[in-house]
């Protein structure tokens, strides 16, 4: 009876989604055929590290991995939270782990204070800057306040070797609020962080100049912070990058980022100007897609929408990413909740406005989820 | 006097100077309020008193405030559940019958199970009688909206009444109305009045002051008086209900009808096989989702295998304006007691002719064969289809023979499609085999009904009608039924007739796992079943109805299989196509980017348009698919020609490859749009504040509007006067303007809303004013002491409005997918793998409830609760004694440990619950949300006389591990003591143990504190310890430690519903040790120490008193101990005979000693002589000396005297 029904999946893709949804829904998950046909079969180190992080975060969870690592059985326990220190594997950046943490953080027994060490910025996952700039405002809407919600970059570590450190803290809640966010409003300012570690500080200025050259045509209110780390704070390998965020008048944040190729990559060293320009274009692309939450946060928003009370939540997004689409499928199989996804109706008056691509309205009814870990007195 | 009548009355002057004067005198002043007229009277006269008053009013106001909740009540609510509760012989059944008769004008003879009646224009009632079993009482308290608590007035309150009230208090307090019966038993009127009053006041203290208590005075013809029942019913039908927390968050169904849909063949072969049951009832509480977890109180946890909504069997009356209900609208629905007329099922219509549904009879009938032929057929162990399965067939000479298994393998997926009405569970594990079984089951059921049961029969014409009625639902059902997506029916005629409706189908990834033959994209599946399937279906139904024997049945099966074979090939192609289509879509999606040609601005614009038009159907993409994209198919053909290029698509579709891709939420577009181009930049120009705004927000437009309103201003620098365009005379003569406006408004007959330009100045001004007023109100009026509260309420109201409006106009079949089955819907729930005892031992008098729950709540963990022993319960509760707990929907037995929290948050184990205090109870049980109430009983049987509810409590915390500790004292004894250091042994067994406790605090019984220092090598387990003072050897040294206690992991659901009817009320779970011992008359082994033994008194030994020498010296002589030397016993001397040499030596020594002694003596003598001589000499010298001194003194005094005399002489002179 314990564990209820078992959900079975195949392949390593969407590994985090499955484990997170399993933890939240209390359903047991079995994943088979993880890279079973590849030369290097089984779980990779970063996935094992993620499992270890989940183990630290929960109490009573049971994880069984077979000998080759191609199959895993995860029986979730209850979320505990509290103080956690985790050495993240450097194959993926901290963002990979942090995304998982943010999804679970509001439902822990004690507020999370996590210290994560590893790669802060790489090209695959959203960086810690991006999470701070774009994920936190979304999370804040569900939590009600941003009191106790913090992400501090203690050390920055670029891709191959890492050496970065961030502290993440998040309050826990009994219930989440429903979200109604269908009008992002217009973009009032663009902010950003240009960072560089173990390279000349002038690199950041070069990035900023090139990014501004693209963005200045749209809006004058642009400020990009330059963030150059030295000495022990700068991690183990050189790198630089840029994170841009566009803030709208209604408090929607659209974020884009790019970082240099890691040391020793096949593509050779990156040019700061290219990074700046490319990031700016990525931001424009993101703005073109639009929505109240940017493409990286779609899945998290959807998750918190269904984990609310039995109320209707609505949010506007741009086109759904494949990750989100898969996430919605998973949500359907774990929680039996379907999203109503409709293109936003544009009124006649606004039809001639040039506001980028088509927007979607995601509507769902919460499942009436409440935090079962938190103690009541 | 006579003239009085004729005299004119005085008439006041209306005009003229007099009238003017009068008017001037009492000129009408503006109405003044009393406060204005007499301000002093309203001034604060007593500051203290006023302060108190204000405080009081505020208190009352705040007390009224509740935490605002979002109103989630459905528009058409489910019937209200009324539980009629009371001890036996109190008149429950009679009351139920009377109420039913009052509403429906029908008399029910034998009521079993819930009865649903229409009570008014907006209300339906489900009446249930509660039998005298604590299980039923607990279950009903959880679902009842209103409780009619019957009390026999001639007897007074009984224990059951109070037990039920306490159960209610724990599980959310429903409305309770007391009903006093047996009032005619009183002979004395005064006595009756007194009893009434006494009972009323007792009832009030239990429920609330002023709770309604009804009196049913007497019986007329075995029924209560009509007017009294009518009054009671009127109270019921206007009653309001309060929302209860648990029921707001959990869906539930009170089952009012149950059918066994297991294959009769399997039941025949294995009578104890797990059953598949369908249960019917209204959804209550909140939305119930398909495939969600449910708990059957009294049975166990299951997940819904399928669920669909049915037409309401007892619908609300039409919304016509009539005062009373039409007789046709006075419906009654009680299938368990055989009332309800026509019952619609998903694929059949049942006309019930009274009591034929009692399932017991059914079973009996099954057992009795009609005649020998049937009996022999029924006893065939290997039915024809199985025989067919084993037979082989060869088509071509050199091929392997084909067996049925092969066919099945191939057509596994297609089998179900033949009969679309059958639905299967979403899990793929039981794929086709079970599906096939199920389909047979249902068919057989229909067949069964028509054949074996004489009284109930299935009318085919009716079933067809039914299908047309609920066709929309049916199609939905079918789509769910054919969930695998493998059965896509692509016959040409299918396409023609197929309903072009979105059909949702549900698959999980595991479905693919089990069925490798399908090449389907990850989760997208295809299922399109045309209407013609329906018709064939019904035809088949006809066949089955007509068929009279099992053999024909199996024939049909074979036919189906053949059909399936034909379709098979096409279907398999279809599957591939369906996969491709999706990939096509994805590709198209990407193509938008790929096709970009950077330098063509026109292309950019075109693509923009394309994007606008080319809308992805996300619902289809994510959750399933309906139609096939014909265009896409054609394209495929064109691309591939004769041979299709599948490789690339395969890569995309093959789940193995896409399943092992990198997992990242970041979505980096393959190719960016060329943002350098002006045209492309223009696409997002208006996303920024610098771009264009829409008209309602555009600053320029707003400014213009403002200009129109407040247009007039004078530029002070230039002296120019600006005027707003349009109306110049706005401020000058408003009145005129108003009139004109009014005229305009009257003149215009058009109803349509005016555009901004059309609005007159007046209207615009009014709008503006309204806005300002609103602003002002927001700023000042709302800002009261309860602004926060009001805002909160407002937000909740808005949310409730949104909740209602969002899916309002949607079709039910679609809506159910988004919301789940909303409360008020009548649904059919299929449950799989239920124990056969549930249906075999089914008793309609026991309520059957499906309690929905979140998936987390199906898990088990440690539940920590705050618990209090009930003050009416006689015994105290002991830790580790099993307890039956009712928590959430469940009733289960578990082993709690009681503990209390110390000030340092340590949970200390308690052996027993405290008498009048709350304590913590921790047990292994289901995860239930915090704040849920719980109830505990020690035994369910009503045999014990006292109050049965042992404890009540509330859930505090849930965890997977629990820290409860027990105090443990380790004792040891010192064996060596040096000042403040002592060596202690007996506390530990080994050095290792000691080292673990190094530095730990220890204490002696006398209270001397100390510390463990270091382990010693010998004896084993001994250690050195230091104390704050010297301890005694007789002291016992102990150490206080805390030992973690494991909570026993025992959890057993109370399966009272599975017991045979006679034993239902007496479920026995795990017994306590005490019970077992009592049963087997085993005495507890007595402790050695507490046994009585013969007393042996040792003789007391008194030690002698020893007084130290120093002390003795100080004592007076009489107190000193006078210890005389014991006389030597002369007789006991032993003669010592020495060796000659020794004697010689001895003699020699003696002589030497004697010599020495003599020498000493003589020396002493000489010394004495010398001393005496010397003394004499000295005496002599002394005498001489004294004489001399005397002489000297004499001389001196003489001289002195002379001198004195001389001096005196001089003085005289």
UniProtKB/TrEMBL annotation, chain A:
Example GO BP: endonucleolytic cleavage of tricistronic rRNA transcript (SSU-rRNA, 5.8S rRNA, LSU-rRNA)
UniProt xrefs under Gene3D superfamilies: RNA 3'-terminal phosphate cyclase domain, RNA 3'-terminal phosphate cyclase, insert domain
Residue ranges constituting the RNA 3'-terminal phosphate cyclase insert domain according to the UniProt record: 182-287
Compartmental location: Nucleus, Nucleolus
Primary location group: nucleus
Name of this protein: RNA 3'-terminal phosphate cyclase-like protein
Keyword Transmembrane annotated: no
InterPro entries to which the protein is assigned, alphabetical: RNA3'-term_phos_cycl_insert, RNA3'_phos_cyclase_dom, RNA3'_phos_cyclase_dom_sf, RNA3'_term_phos_cyc, RNA3'_term_phos_cyc_type_2, RNA3'_term_phos_cycl-like_CS, RNA3'P_cycl/enolpyr_Trfase_a/b, RPTC_insert
Family to which this protein belongs: Belongs to the RNA 3'-terminal cyclase family. Type 2 subfamily.
Residue span(s) of domain RNA 3'-terminal phosphate cyclase: 8-341
Native organism: Magallana gigas
PROSITE patterns on file: RTC
Single GO MF annotation: RNA endonuclease activity
Keywords tagged on the record: Nucleus, Ribosome biogenesis
Entry GO terms, CC: nucleolus
From TrEMBL, chain B:
Entry coiled-coil feature ranges: none
Localization (cell): Nucleus, Nucleolus
Cellular compartments per GO CC: 90S preribosome; nucleoplasm; small-subunit processome
Acidic residues bias locations: 445-456, 550-591, 726-745
Biased composition (Low complexity): 478-489
Annotated region described as Disordered, given as residue ranges: 1-40, 426-597, 717-766, 1164-1185
SMART domains: AARP2CN (SM00785), DUF663 (SM01362)
Alphabetically ordered keywords of this record: ATP-binding, GTP-binding, Hydrolase, Nucleotide-binding, Nucleus, Phosphoprotein, Ribosome biogenesis
Biased segments, Basic and acidic residues type: 757-766, 1164-1182
UniProt-listed Gene3D superfamilies: P-loop containing nucleotide triphosphate hydrolases
CDD domains: BMS1
Biased composition (Polar residues): 462-472, 505-517, 524-538
Annotated GO MF terms: ATP binding; GTP binding; GTPase activity; U3 snoRNA binding
Biased composition range(s): Basic residues: 8-27
Reactions catalysed according to its record: GTP + H2O = GDP + phosphate + H(+)
Family in the record: Belongs to the TRAFAC class translation factor GTPase superfamily. Bms1-like GTPase family. BMS1 subfamily.
Descriptive protein name: Bms1-type G domain-containing protein
Organism: Magallana gigas
Phylogenetic placement of the source organism: Eukaryota, Metazoa, Spiralia, Lophotrochozoa, Mollusca
């Amino acid at each position: 009876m314990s564990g209820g029904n078992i959900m079975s999946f195949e392949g390593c893709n969407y590994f985090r989604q499955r484990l997170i949804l399993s933890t939240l829904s209390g359903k047991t998950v079995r994943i088979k055929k993880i890279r079973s046909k590849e030369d290097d079969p089984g779980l990779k180190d970063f996935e094992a590290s993620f499992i270890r992080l989940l183990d630290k975060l929960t109490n009573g969870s049971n994880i069984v991995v077979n000998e080759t690592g191609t199959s895993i059985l995860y029986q979730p326990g209850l979320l505990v939270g509290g103080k956690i220190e985790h050495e993240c594997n450097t194959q993926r950046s901290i963002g990979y782990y942090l995304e998982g943490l943010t999804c679970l953080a509001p439902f822990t027994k004690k507020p999370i204070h996590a210290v994560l060490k590893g790669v802060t910025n790489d090209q695959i996952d959203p960086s810690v800057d991006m999470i701070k700039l774009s994920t936190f405002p979304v999370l804040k809407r569900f939590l009600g306040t941003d009191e106790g919600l913090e992400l501090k970059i203690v050390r920055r570590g670029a891709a191959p070797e890492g050496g970065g450190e961030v502290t993440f803290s998040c309050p826990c809640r009994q219930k989440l609020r429903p979200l109604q966010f269908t009008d992002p409003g217009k973009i009032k300012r663009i902010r950003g962080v240009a960072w560089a570690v173990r390279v000349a500080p002038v690199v950041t200025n070069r990035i900023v100049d090139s990014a501004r050259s693209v963005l200045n045509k749209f809006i004058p209110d642009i400020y990009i912070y330059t963030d150059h780390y030295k000495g022990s704070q700068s991690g183990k390998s050189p790198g630089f990058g840029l994170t841009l965020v566009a803030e709208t008048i209604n408090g929607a944040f659209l974020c884009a980022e790019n970082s240099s190729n890691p040391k020793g990559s096949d593509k050779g060293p990156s040019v700061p100007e290219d990074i700046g320009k490319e990031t700016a274009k990525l931001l424009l692309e993101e703005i073109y897609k639009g929505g109240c939450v940017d493409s990286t946060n779609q899945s998290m928003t959807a998750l918190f929408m269904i984990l609310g009370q039995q109320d209707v939540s609505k949010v506007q997004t741009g086109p759904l990413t494949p990750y989100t689409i898969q996430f919605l499928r998973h949500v359907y199989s774990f929680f039996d909740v379907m999203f109503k996804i409709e293109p936003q109706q544009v009124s006649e008056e606004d039809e001639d406005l040039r506001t980028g691509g088509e927007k979607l309205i995601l509507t769902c009814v919460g499942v009436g989820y409440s935090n079962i870990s938190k103690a009541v007195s | 006097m006579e003239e009085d009548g004729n005299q004119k009355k005085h008439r006041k002057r209306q005009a003229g100077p007099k009238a003017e004067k009068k008017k001037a005198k009492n000129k009408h002043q503006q109405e003044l309020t009393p406060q204005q007229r007499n301000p002093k009277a309203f001034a604060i006269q007593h500051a203290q008193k006023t302060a108190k008053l204000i405080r009081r009013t505020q208190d009352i106001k705040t007390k009224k405030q509740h935490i605002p909740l979002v109103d989630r009540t459905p528009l058409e609510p489910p019937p209200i559940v009324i539980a009629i509760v009371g001890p036996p012989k109190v008149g429950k059944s009679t009351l139920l019958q009377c109420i039913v008769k009052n509403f429906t004008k029908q008399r029910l003879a034998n009521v079993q199970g819930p009865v649903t009646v229409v009570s008014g224009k907006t209300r339906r009632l489900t009446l249930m009688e509660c039998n005298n079993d604590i299980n039923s009482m607990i279950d009903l308290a959880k679902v009842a909206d209103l409780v009619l608590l019957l009390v026999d007035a001639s007897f007074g309150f009984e224990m059951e009444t109070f037990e039920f009230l306490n159960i209610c208090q724990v599980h959310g307090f429903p409305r309770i109305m007391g009903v006093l019966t047996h009032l005619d038993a009183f002979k004395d009127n005064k006595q009756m009045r007194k009893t009434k009053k006494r009972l009323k006041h007792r009832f009030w203290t239990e429920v609330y002051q002023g709770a309604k208590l009804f009196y049913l005075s007497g019986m007329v013809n075995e029924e209560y008086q009509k007017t009294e029942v009518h009054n009671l019913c009127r109270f019921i039908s206007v009653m309001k209900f309060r929302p209860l927390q648990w029921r707001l968050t959990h869906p539930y169904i009170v089952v009012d009808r149950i059918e066994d849909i297991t294959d009769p063949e399997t039941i025949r072969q294995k009578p104890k096989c797990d059953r598949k049951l369908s249960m019917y009832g209204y959804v209550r509480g909140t939305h119930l989702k398909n495939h969600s977890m449910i708990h059957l109180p009294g049975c166990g946890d299951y997940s819904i295998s399928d669920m669909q909504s049915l037409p309401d069997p007892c619908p609300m009356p039409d919304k016509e304006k009539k005062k009373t209900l039409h007789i046709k609208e006075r419906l009654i629905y009680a299938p368990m007691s055989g009332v309800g007329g026509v019952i619609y099922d998903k694929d059949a219509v049942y006309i019930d002719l009274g009591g034929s549904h009692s399932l017991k009879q059914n079973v009996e009938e099954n057992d009795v064969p009609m005649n020998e032929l049937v009996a022999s057929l029924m006893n065939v162990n290997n039915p024809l289809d199985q025989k067919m399965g084993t037979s082989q067939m060869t088509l071509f000479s050199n091929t392997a023979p084909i067996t049925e298994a092969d066919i099945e393998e191939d057509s596994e997926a297609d089998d179900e499609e033949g009969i679309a009405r059958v639905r299967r569970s979403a899990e793929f594990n039981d794929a086709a085999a079970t599906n096939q079984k199920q389909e047979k089951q249902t068919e057989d059921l229909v067949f069964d009904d028509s054949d074996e049961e004489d009284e109930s029969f299935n009318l085919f014409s009716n079933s067809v009608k039914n299908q047309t009625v609920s066709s929309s639902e049916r199609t939905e059902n079918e789509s769910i039924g054919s969930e695998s997506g493998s059965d896509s029916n692509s016959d040409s005629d299918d396409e023609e007739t197929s309903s072009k409706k979105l059909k949702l189908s549900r698959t999980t990834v595991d479905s693919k796992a089990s069925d490798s033959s399908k090449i389907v994209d990850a989760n997208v599946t295809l299922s399109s079943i045309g209407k013609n399937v329906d018709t064939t279906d019904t035809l088949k139904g006809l066949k089955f109805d007509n068929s009279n024997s099992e053999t024909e049945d199996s024939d049909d099966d074979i036919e189906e299989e053949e059909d399936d074979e034909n379709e098979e090939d096409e279907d398999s192609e279809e599957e591939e196509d369906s996969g491709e289509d999706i990939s096509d879509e994805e590709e198209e999606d990407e193509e938008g980017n790929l096709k970009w040609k950077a330098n063509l601005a026109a292309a950019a614009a075109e693509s923009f348009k394309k994007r606008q038009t080319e809308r992805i159907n996300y619902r289809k993409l994510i959750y399933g698919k309906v139609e096939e994209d014909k265009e896409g198919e054609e394209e495929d053909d064109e691309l591939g020609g004769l041979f299709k290029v599948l490789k690339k698509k395969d890569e995309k579709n093959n789940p193995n490859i896409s399943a092992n891709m990198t997992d990242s939420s970041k979505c980096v577009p393959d190719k960016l749009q060329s943002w350098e181009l002006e045209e492309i930049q223009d696409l997002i120009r208006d996303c920024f504040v610098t771009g264009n705004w829409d008209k309602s927000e555009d600053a320029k437009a707003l400014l213009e509007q403002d200009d129109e309103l407040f247009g007039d201003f004078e530029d002070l620098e230039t002296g120019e006067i600006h005027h707003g365009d349009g109306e110049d005379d706005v401020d000058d003569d408003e009145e005129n303007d108003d009139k004109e406006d009014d005229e305009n408004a009257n003149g215009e007959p058009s109803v349509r809303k005016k555009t901004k330009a059309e609005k007159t100045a007046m209207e615009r001004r009014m709008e503006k004013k309204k806005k300002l007023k609103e602003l002002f109100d927001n700023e000042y009026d709302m800002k009261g002491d309860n602004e926060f509260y009001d805002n909160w309420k407002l937000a909740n109201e808005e949310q409730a409005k949104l909740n209602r409006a969002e899916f309002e106009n949607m079709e039910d079949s679609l809506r159910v997918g988004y919301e789940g089955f909303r409360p008020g819907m009548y649904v059919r729930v299929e449950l799989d793998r239920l124990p056969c005892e549930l249906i075999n031992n089914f008793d309609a008098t026991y309520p059957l409830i499906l309690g929905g729950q979140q998936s987390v709540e199906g898990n088990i963990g440690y539940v920590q609760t705050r618990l209090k022993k009930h003050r009416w319960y006689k015994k105290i509760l002991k830790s580790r004694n099993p307890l039956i707990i009712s928590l959430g929907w469940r009733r289960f037995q578990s082993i709690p440990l009681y503990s209390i929290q110390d000030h340092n948050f340590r949970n200390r184990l308690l052996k027993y619950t405290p008498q009048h205090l709350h304590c913590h109870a921790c047990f292994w049980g289901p995860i239930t949300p915090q704040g849920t109430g719980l109830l505990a009983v020690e035994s369910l049987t009503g045999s014990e006389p006292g109050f049965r509810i042992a404890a009540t409590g509330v859930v505090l915390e849930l965890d997977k591990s629990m820290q409860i500790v027990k105090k443990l004292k380790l004792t040891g004894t010192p064996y060596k003591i040096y000042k403040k250091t002592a060596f202690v042994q007996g506390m530990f067994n080994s050095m290792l143990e000691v080292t673990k406790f190094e530095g730990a605090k220890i204490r002696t019984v006398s209270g001397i504190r100390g510390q463990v220092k270091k382990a010693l090598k010998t004896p084993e387990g001994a250690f050195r310890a230091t104390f704050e003072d010297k301890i005694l050897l007789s002291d016992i040294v102990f150490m206080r430690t805390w030992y973690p206690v494991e909570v026993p992991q025992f959890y057993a659901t109370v399966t009272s519903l599975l017991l045979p009817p006679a034993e239902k009320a007496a479920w026995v779970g795990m017994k306590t040790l005490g019970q077992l011992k009592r049963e087997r008359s085993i005495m507890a082994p007595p402790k050695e120490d507490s046994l009585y033994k013969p007393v042996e008194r040792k003789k007391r030994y008194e030690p002698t008193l020893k007084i130290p020498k120093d002390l003795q010296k100080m004592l007076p002589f009489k107190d000193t101990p006078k210890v005389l030397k014991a006389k030597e016993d002369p007789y006991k001397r032993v003669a010592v005979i020495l060796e000659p040499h020794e004697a010689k030596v001895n003699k020699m020594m003696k002589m030497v000693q004697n010599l020495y002694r003599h020498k000493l003596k003589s020396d002493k003598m000489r010394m004495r002589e010398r001393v005496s001589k010397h003394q004499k000499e000295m005496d002599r010298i002394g005498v001489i000396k004294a004489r001399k001194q005397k002489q000297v003194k004499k001389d001196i005094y003489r001289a002195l005297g002379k001198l004195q005399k001389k001096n005196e002489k001089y003085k005289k002179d």
